Amino acid sequence: MGSTRMTPFGTELFGLGMFVFCSYCAQRPDAPAHAMLAAAIPTANANANANANATAIANANATANATAIATPAPTQPKVVLHIGDSMVGYGHGLSLAMKKRYQAAGIEYHWDAWTSAQVQTIDRAKMDHLLAAFKPDLVLFNLGTNNLTVPHPEALAGGIKALAAHLAEQGRTCVWIAPIRPKWTFNPHLYDVLEANVAPCKYFDAGPQLDPPLQTDHIHPTDPGGEQWAAPLWDFLSTR
Hints:
Oligomer: single chain
């Protein structure tokens, strides 16, 4: 077998090639520039996202704190007068349930009711006597059950507005309590008319989902039924 010999010229050429190669290696960075840039972009994006999230959380907390400061808790009444038609309960039903709650809270509570009272016929003289006697800062007002069968409840709008304005006189807070849905045929439009006209009183409607047990007359709630009605009403009063 023959042998290969490198000539002096070949030796010089090989040495020059190795010098160039080593010089390139010495100047070459650890990673190509485009790879380094690609690695840096996700890191930059992650930092930007983290900063954005932190800013959003800080802004949300600031907004929540400002809202809490700007929205004070409802002021507890000192004297409550609960009046209206027979759905007040005559010391049973709704009035019994509300009396328990107010007494437990150390708040003075009184009730009175008008049998078969309607928007047009409620005794204004008796109402004024009660308002003057007890000087309530909150009036709970049940009225509308005996108007649920009228064909055109919009005709009652003026009377509703006048009663609500009277109840709210002298800075009193008033809450107009809508009737529970009865078992007989009724005109649901009355609820719309009430809601649209009870201002400046607040409007409370427990809604069609409320189906309390009734007395043998199939009209008035029993005491447990009054508890069912009072629960959402109490929650409503506690947040307004």
